[in-house]
Amino acid sequence: MSGPSPDRPLVFKFGGACFITMGDYQRVARYIADRLPEAGRIVVVVSAMSGTTGNLQNAQRDLSARPSATLTAALLITADTVSSVLLATALCEIGVNARQIEARQEGLTASGSPQGARLTGIDPAPLWAALATCTVITMPGGQAIDENNAVVTLGRNSSDLSAVAAAVSLNAEACEIFSDVPGVFTADPYLLPEARMISDLGYATVKQMSLAGAKMLHPRAVDMAERHAVPIICRTCPPDATSRTVISGTASPTAIIADTRSAVWAFPDHRLLAKAVARMAEAQLEDPGMYGLVLDFEGVKHLVIPGGDPHGAAHRICAAASPRTDLRLLTTVRDAGDPESLLVLEGDLLVEARRRHLMHYPSFVQPPGGKARSPLSGLLTRSVAPEPVS
Ligand SMILES: Nc1ncnc2c1ncn2[C@@H]1O[C@H](COP(=O)(O)OP(=O)(O)O)[C@@H](O)[C@H]1O
Ligand SMILES: N[C@@H](CC(=O)OP(=O)(O)O)C(=O)O
User: Fold this and answer.
1) Which of 39, 189, 259, 265 could be bridged to 213 by S-S, CB 3.0 to 4.6 A?
2) What is the dihedral sign for C-alpha 39, 177, 240, 379?
3) Where does the record place the region Disordered (predicted)?
4) Of the given ranges (116-125, 233-242, 339-348), which has the lowest mean pLDDT?
5) From CA 214, how far away is CA 145, in angstroms rounded?
């Protein structure tokens, strides 16, 4: 291990999957404290507890089918902010000189839709100023300031983007992203337990995986990391953060992405499809997270939104088409060439994904356990009994 280098702080991001119970904030805090001697300074991007952002969004939709983007952003940012305050609290409690900062102190600027704004600038000065006063900064992920000085979100799951932006801003050696998987696998290990962990992976491949609906990394975060040659290190939530995938360079193993969340509409009328595609392109100017592709299924063209349509924008654009909730996107990201994407019936998705995975990776690997959601994810929307902390 090299000696402390205060000029190159470590940059960590803890995803929502790392925060299931209050004890997890203590575990993460202890891990951060243990790593502090490596650099003397750590910037930690923090996501909302698993499930919280979705719960807030559902609660708001109980009041309004189409809340404004401004109100949605104002609500959703609270979840990551709460989480970053809780982590700073846990750090201070064990004697770390930690400080929580808000979006206005992160140095990130953005424009476009307040619920999915485009990152336009990174100013390192505020982060360095904050680091001059403490050894660990916790900051809510997925937030920036727009031209009206309002706090906006960079879209769902965009904490990864904040983390890479912080790493770029501080000239960090790498951006370490912690979640509920030990690294990136050849398929989502919760869906295909036989998936294999990949130790080295190129930026282009992981970006194709994200664009095909694999949730583990935000595609714009991968883009930015590639442009600035910042390696992303994916590892599992503490305390077992030993194994990892390093994303850098160009290694491109085959991966299978079974997108259980994809949203699909059938467009038998080609003119309606052309209009919808044009409106998608316009919407993308405002919200870069709006991404869709056109695929055939049984001779009919379909518009597909990988990863689903959390804010309902594609539902509005496709209002004149027939939703196909029984179809899902299945993608093979390969060594060379474009990914191969097709639509399959939902009931066949896992069987077909497994068949394709087996063609590339014949042997069986031990499955991980089930995925967890925080019982505290309702903290902001309903009262919960305090949980004893171990
Ligand atoms: N190929 C893959 N390798 C690893 N994880 C994957 C893959 N595809 C999808 N995932 C999913 O990504 C999830 C982690 O991303 P995410 O849910 O955004 O976590 P976090 O909330 O910690 O950011 C895992 O729980 C897993 O289900
Ligand atoms: N509030 C964001 C936070 C985020 O990016 O979450 P995660 O890192 O857990 O995907 C969201 O869920 O949209």
Assistant:
1) 259
2) positive
3) 367-390
4) 233-242
5) 28
| Ligand of minimum distance to the alpha carbon of 310 | 2
**H/E stretch holding 247:** strand 244-247
Using DSSP bridges, classify how beta strands 340-345 and 300-305 pair: parallel, antiparallel or unpaired: unpaired
In the chain, domain spans? 10-180, 257-360
Count helices and strands in the chain by DSSP H and E runs:
10, 21
Assign domain 10-180 to a CATH class: alpha beta
Ligand 2, CB cutoff 6 Å, lining residues: 15-16, 47-48, 53, 76, 79-80, 141-142, 156-159
Which residues share a beta bridge with 42? 10, 136
The residues, any chain, with a CB within 8 Å of residue 329's CB and separated by 6 or more, are 212, 213, 257, 259, 262, 264, 295, 304, 306, 341, 342, 343
Inter-residue contact 245 to 184 (CB < 8 Å): yes
The Cα–Cα gap between 343 and 107 comes to 41
pLDDT digits (tens, 9 = 90+) for 138-184: 999 999 999 999 999 999 999 999 999 999 999 999 999 999 999 99
Cβ-in-10-Å burial (0-12, 13-18, 19+) of 337 comes to: exposed
Cα 181 to middle of ligand 1, angstroms:
7
Q: ∠ CA 355-359-363 to the nearest 5 degrees?
A: 95
Q: ipTM of the assembly?
A: 0.97
R_g over Cα of the chain: 21
How many angstroms is it from 149 CA to the middle of ligand 1? 32
Gap from CA of 17 to ligand 2 centroid (Å): 9
CB of 31 within 6 A of ligand 1: the answer is: no
Q: Please answer whether residues 190 and 349 qualify as being in contact, where contact means their C-beta atoms are separated by less than 8 angstroms.
A: no
CA distance 32 to 220: 26
The overall pTM is greater than 0.80 = yes
